[in-house]
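Below is how a single chain appears once it has passed through the pipeline. First comes the sequence as given, then the structure the pipeline wrote out for it. We keep one example in the README because the format questions we get most often are answered faster by looking than by reading.
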Amino acid sequence: MDSIPDQSGRLAVVTGANSGIGYVTARELARRGAHVVLACRSHERGRAAVERLRTEVPGAHAELRPLDLADSKSIRGFAESWSHDRLDLLVNNAGVAMVPFSRTVDGFESQFGINHLGTFALTGLLMPHLLAAAHPRVVTVSSEGQRFARFDMTNLNAERRYRAAFAYVQSKRANLYFAMELQRRADSAGLRLRSMAVAPGLTRSNVLTGGANGARGRVYGILTRLLLRIAFSPTADGARTSLYASTTPGLPGGSYVAPDGLFQLRGEPVLRGRERAIQDSATARQLWVLSERLTGVRYCLPAEPPSRR
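Resulting structure:
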């Protein structure tokens, strides 16, 4: 993290920034001079995170704004209340992992609804502010687990059987499809926007123990915390890929940043270009159309390159 360049003058939003990778990402951006908006579902936890950040980084420019990716009204409210003149960086970090079956306020299966549809809607609604920036960048946190997804367009919303792990890796594959398709469309429109995806590797956070997973019981909590301590890397290590994608000068749009270790589980950030989802533009385009229909959010970006005469 010592290699992060100066971020003074950049305005960034980090979703799910009250803890884990999101908090470390927000803190390190602020440490390098960025003005950081912590977008958090819980006002209480978000306020505590801002206070902690300001203690750890004296003089930090940080603010809290409410955002619940499980509720389209909250997402639209966040975008409509944006009061800055632009947005330089959006880090789509917030998400849930392998939670018991539930549906969002809008009726979507929670992992697909929050991890993908919420992210898709937020990015689209913030697009005018991103395009007002000189060099806008969108970083979407996927997962190394996306490599194991059997992406089923007919069961994205738990139309049939629900399996928590299957739904999770499928939603993370959707994150990667989204990031790559956003870059294709930005390129087609001749925009300077750069969209990229990252995988953090196995990282200690409360994503497996907090939120809906907190109701799984005492035994689940003890065993999961033990697993996190033994097999997972410190939170700061998991934030490396997000920070690399967010701050590395000249990093091309459409990049996928993951750890360089075995199975992408840990290590230093590197670019990986051999993932199937990166090249699968047909599925990505199909998912994009479905996402616009489900969320009601349409991006003002062309789907195909303009014809040349």
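The CA atoms of residues 43 and 66 lie 7 Å apart.

See the next section for the split statistics.
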